Amino acid sequence: MRALRDARPDLELTYVGGARGLEGKLVGGGDLLPYDQLLVRSLRTAARDVHLVLDPIRVGLSVPQAWWLLGRRRPSAIFTTGGYLALPLTLAARARGIPTLVWEGNVIPGRSTRALARLATRIAVSFPPTLAAFPGRAFVSGTPIRSFAGIEREPARAGLGIAAEDRLMLVFGGSQAVTTLNSAVLGSLNRLLDRWRLLHVAGEAGMAAALRARDALPAGLAERYDPRPFLTDGMAEALVAADLVVGRAGSSTCAEVAAVGVTSILVPYPYAGSHQRANAAWLGDHGAAVVVANDAFSPDRLADEAERLRDDAIREPMARAARRLGRPDAARAIAAELLALAERRPLPSLSDEAVA
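The structure corresponding to this sequence follows.
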């Protein structure tokens, strides 16, 4: 949204959500954007319950609802990140001749995105391998991420109390379960803290155990361990300050470590298909990250990898490889494509070598 506003301050934007999404509270409950809601649920589960029957019915009923909504709003273009909510909206947009841009954030596209691709005007993808799933229809945009503009490494490190000779490890789990990461960290604190300063985003549920573990450390090690429940406002500074990041392999995490140019140990979330494994493999295959399977990520494995990556001669080439893969301007690329679709202008992506 910020990239669109930067490009066109006078732009009118509307958000369309579903019956079971948080967006109704985040967007619809305030003055951020006009908000419309479809009958279809924003989130869908594979549980064998009544929703297996009701969800297809909701999708069907949402198609005429979306048709009416688009007739009332008369948008020039539609942007969607996929999911079942997008199906009725994209069907109605296709029928009304409204161009649609779909974004896919994972290497392996989801089923809903594959279905939407037949209806969408263009598909933006985060990773080059995904182009093969949408021949002739897609371009590589990267993943929209937080802005790192104006954040300098030395002030960021100073703000966290990191001396020039120290190496900072940042551990966080993103939006997925962090139990595996927390267990590995707490089980290896003595080995890690002898060589690293550690900023550990443990989540609210993990903070009690993290604080107990810190209290049990010798004073010289305890001051090198900084557990936090979350790091929302300071995450950009922490990423810039870090020498090593340990985390899951969601699209945003992969995009941010690449944009910053920092070495990472990626532990793909083992569920939700193979999405995170494929995301992590993209960085790993390019020498930009160490990839460790969830069931292999033990305290000893973390300590061993951290000890190896403490060597600047090993870690710094990986950081440079990550930076080469980064696309920090992804939001602007998507905004430019969407505005060109809305204004029926030549598409910027058609002159990009990433077109399939």
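The chain has two domains: 2-143+329-351, 153-325.
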